[in-house]
Amino acid sequence: MNFYLKYCFLFFLFPYALFGQSLPQPLHSASVELSVALNAATEIFTYIYTVANPSSNTSSINSCDIDIKKSENSIDFSDEGLQNFDTRGGKRSYERITKEFKGQFLTMRAFRVVLPPSYIWLPGFSNALRVGWLTRVDSQIQPSQSVSGFKLQSRGLPGVRDCEARPYLNFDDLPDEIAEDAEKAYQFRLSLSFHGKTIGPSAPKGLDPASLLDYLIDQKHQAKQAGWISGPGAEGMEKSLDAKLNAAKDAVGRGQNNAARNQLKAFLNEVEAQRGKALNNNTYLLLKLNAQYILTKLPEKS
């Protein structure tokens, strides 16, 4: 049985079994916006999410999570300073899931999950290789409401990640053939969920400048595929960004760090100029933070 489904049975079914509710409607839309900050001394990124439930929905949101699957041949990051979960049973769930799926997460024990203030949410790691938050009925995100303060801390670099928001289910209101079958109940819940994209921790194949530039080029293409680069002039701007990144990579290959740094600075200037135009906020953060990180790995040469 999926980890989140187990949590739902244990955490929700008993306290709320006496209250009948109508079946929830699908979450037609939701948004998972974020800000990201890097601690240069520790190289730890803090991802701060705001989950919004628009007024067009009729169902509340009671869980949200983000994909943290490990890409093929990607590196592992250190967990120093990221000891996770010391309350509410989260540590046990984390240890069980990471042991069962060892090697498939972005990296082992390399996250810290922080709860929103004043809300009764529980962090967790799922069998679907996701990290997220789960709440009780009294802390759900209602239509027209947004909640901030969901935090992930990791040395994982900003990357395009799948995200999911799920509605609350009262299992007493489900038909018996669904409520009594764990897999059917899980699939039913998935059918009601909102599936989208956000920025979350990811990993390149190496931390040398050439590998990091390859990673940034790939992430820019993923942002394009997600529809995050659009509008008048977007195609020409994207080609211009590609040209600067490719020129930086060629310069690195020749050992010309200063030339590579100049190309990255020109790249950052264009990203800044296109913020809110061809680049949405997610793409702006994705490109800016990765380019700045590469500059820290690219010392100036005389």
Please list the strands of the largest sheet in the order they lie side by side: 5-6-3-8-9
Strand content: 15-25%
Q: Which regions have little confidence, pLDDT < 50, spanning 5+ residues? A: 1-21, 85-93, 105-109
Q: How many helix segments? A: 8
Total strand count, please?
A: 9
Order of helices and strands: HEEEHEEEEEHHEHHHH
Set out the fold topology.
Elements: H1 3-16, E1 31-39, E2 44-53, E3 61-67, H2 90-100, E4 112-114, E5 121-125, E6 130-135, E7 145-154, E8 157-167, H3 176-179, H4 182-192, E9 194-202, H5 209-225, H6 234-253, H7 257-274, H8 281-296
Antiparallel strand pairs: 1-2, 2-7, 3-6, 3-8, 4-7, 5-6, 8-9
Helix pairs in contact: 5-6, 5-8, 6-7, 7-8
Structure report:
The protein has 302 residues and is an alpha+beta fold. It has two domains: 200 residues, no CATH class; 88 residues. It has a five-stranded antiparallel β-sheet. It has a four-stranded antiparallel β-sheet with strand order 1-2-7-4. Strand 5 and strand 6 form a beta hairpin. Helix 5 runs antiparallel to helix 6 and helix 7 packs antiparallel against helix 8. The protein starts with a helix and ends in a 6-residue tail after the last helix. The N terminus is likely disordered.
In short:
About 35% of the residues lie in helices and about 25% in strands.
List key phrases describing it:
302 residues; alpha+beta; 2 domains; 5-stranded antiparallel sheet; 4-stranded antiparallel sheet; 37% helix
